[in-house]
Amino acid sequence: MREKLLSGDLWAARIDKLWKEVDDGVYWIRACWYMIPEETVSGRQPHNLKRELYLTNDFADIEMECILRHCSVKCPKEFSKASNDGDDVCLCEYEYDVHWRSFKRLAELVDGDSDSDQEWNGRKEEKVDDSDEEMELDDGVLKSKRGGLTSASGGANSCKGRFFGIEKVGMKLIP
């Protein structure tokens, strides 16, 4: 079976969704495809293992009867423990973007890890006035209904040199 997968006669997929059509009773799945290294832009490299696959962002809705059998795709830690479990065990350490032709290492959550944003919120956040105060633009100067003046030349997300919301999206304090 592994030889057919590696030759491109078979494909591996992760099942993301399963449903039954009301009209004809046919079962369908949404499959997120895996690729073998030969199908990527860089091809198979010397560091690739024989049973290595890449998870892609390519998906399709297919009939469930197209599924031949179950295979296991594991992270590197689990794969090292399951190396003697047969040919239907594969390794997946990276995700491959078929549109941008780029690789991204898949994050592993080890026991005890949590999904926290502590790394991103390393510095104290500035106090920001979140009031819905109305502002008017007059010749490049924002006039507040409270009477204060602010400059409008800072940008769409800024007011008095402070940025609102952008520091939570992809910014990290570099020591």
Automatic annotation (TrEMBL):
InterPro entries: BAH_dom (IPR001025), Rsc/polybromo (IPR037382). It is found in: Nucleus. Its main location: nucleus. The keyword Transcription regulation applies. GO terms for molecular function: chromatin binding. Residues 128-139 have a biased composition (Acidic residues). The keyword Repeat applies. Residues 1-107 form the BAH domain. GO terms for cellular component: RSC-type complex. SMART domains: BAH (SM00439). Keywords: Chromatin regulator, Nucleus, Repeat, Transcription, Transcription regulation. PANTHER family: PROTEIN POLYBROMO-1, SWI/SNF-RELATED. This is Bromo adjacent homology (BAH) domain.
